[in-house]
Specification:
Distance between the termini: 39 Å
Order of helices and strands: HEEHHEEHEE
Structural class: alpha+beta
Strand order of the largest sheet: 1-2-3-4-6-5
Shape: globular
Helix content: 25-40%
Oligomer: single chain
Length: 163
């Protein structure tokens, strides 16, 4: 076998590597990672509180590997954690949280996506939302119309941080 292991670059068919089962919740899809390019990565975990530590750790590892300083790394980890933590209580059944990271020498852009049962995950009045605004250069959240195929509202939190 040549080339990088499938857990880092996807399977031989170009699709992300996805383990076959999840111990905590067999119905939810387990962790999967896909690299879109040398400076972009996509990570998905079941939208369960126990999985948020994995997102924090992966966010930190990605930032440190990319050469970000510790202050920026901490801000990105905090922002991803806060966005994901706000989405988890509103999650639709069997939903993943997907984080897409893209970065270059000037900035990092992150998208945190999930499916919510309602559209109340974020409000300008919430402390978490104000915290996200304080540590990002741009921040936006969107809810699209209810999608019966996924039994909820596709929800996206996008932010950028310059360095």
């Amino acid at each position: 076998m040549t080339g990088p292991p499938p857990t880092h670059r996807g399977g031989n068919d170009g699709q992300p590597y996805r383990p076959s089962s999840s111990i905590e919740n067999p119905a939810a899809e387990p962790l999967w990672i896909q690299t879109a390019s040398d400076d972009a990565i996509i990570v998905a975990v079941p939208a369960e509180p126990i999985r948020l530590a994995m997102l924090r750790a992966l966010s930190e590892t990605l930032c440190l590997t990319a050469g970000f300083d510790i202050g920026l790394t901490n801000d990105i980890r905090l922002t991803v954690d806060e966005a994901a933590s706000a989405l988890v209580p509103h999650r639709a059944p069997s939903t993943n949280i997907t984080c897409e990271f893209a970065y270059d020498k000037q900035a990092i852009a992150v998208r945190v996506l999930s499916t919510s049962q309602d559209t109340t995950a974020f409000s300008d009045a919430q402390l978490g939302w104000r915290l996200l605004r304080a540590v990002t250069d741009s921040l936006e959240t969107t809810h699209t119309a209810f999608d019966p195929r996924v039994s909820g509202y596709p929800t996206e939190v996008k932010f950028t941080r310059n360095w």
